[in-house]
Amino acid sequence: MIDLKEVTDNAAAFEWRTIETSGEFDGANQILLKNRYFEGVYGYEVLTRFQLNDGRNLWVDRGWVKAGKDAQTAPVITAIPKGQVSIKARLRLDRSLPQGAFFALPATGAGMISKLNAQSGLESEGFYLDLIGGADPLLTPKVAAQIPELSDGPHLAYALQWIFFAGLIGYGRILIRRGQILTSKEL
Fold first, then answer.
1. What is d(CA 95, CA 150) in angstroms, rounded to the nearest whole number?
2. How far from the centroid of its chain's Cα atoms is residue 79's Cα?
3. CA 54 to CA 52: how far, in whole Å?
4. What domain range is 186 assigned to?
5. How far apart are the two ends of the chain, measured CA to CA in Å?
6. Which residues pair with 18 in a beta bridge?
7. Contact 124, 114 (CB under 8 A)
8. Considering the domain boundaries, does residue 39 fall inside one?
């Protein structure tokens, strides 16, 4: 476990690492990121501003919450503890948040954190934290931010599929050529 004080200019070297830090949540600056799903249910990611003891500010993803029953019903968000708290979290870079790109089209260049800061009129670090827990039981999210699944993916199946397609093309060319040869012999 790393103390956040060790993270200075090179946050990329610490991405996905578990860190510990202390500070105070700012409940007045909280943002709900829409279009987040958990087990097929629509909801929001709750990002709350957090002021570190050294005066720096950053956003903390406090996890997923289920949307209200309709568009006019606010989701139920767990209250944050008042005063100084110690938290345990994963460090995430600005690029880790979904950018809204479709089919791997390039993003606009502005990261989500910079957009959050622009909307709120606040400044923060260029990274954020996925809350895991803390000294207070209120800090443990009911549904924590999901870690991406690392796998080899379906590459073998795709490779076999394309080999099969290439074989069909080769077989089709043989049939076409054979038909042309038989037609020319008949003439």
1. 17
2. 23
3. 5
4. 153-187
5. 83
6. 90
7. no
8. yes
3-state secondary structure of 137: helix
104 and 17 share a domain? Answer: yes
Q: Residues 117-173: pLDDT tens digits? A: 777 677 777 788 889 988 888 788 888 777 767 677 778 888 899 999 999 999 999
Split into its structural domains, the chain has a count of: 2
* 21-70: pLDDT as tens digits: 899 998 888 888 887 888 888 888 888 899 988 888 888 998 888 988 88
Which tens digits make up the pLDDT trace of 77-119?
888 888 999 999 888 887 655 544 433 334 444 566 776 677 7
Instruction: Specify the pTM.
Output: 0.67
Q: Are residues 183 and 132 in the same domain?
A: no
Within a domain: residue 28?
yes
Judgement on whether residues 183 and 110 belong to the same structural domain of the protein: no
Same domain, 168 and 130: no
Same domain, 174 and 112: no
Clarify whether residues 26 and 73 are in a common domain: yes
Q: Which of 33, 28, 30, 6 is nearest to 18 (CA)?
A: 6
Do 29 and 120 touch, CB atoms closer than 8 A? Answer: yes
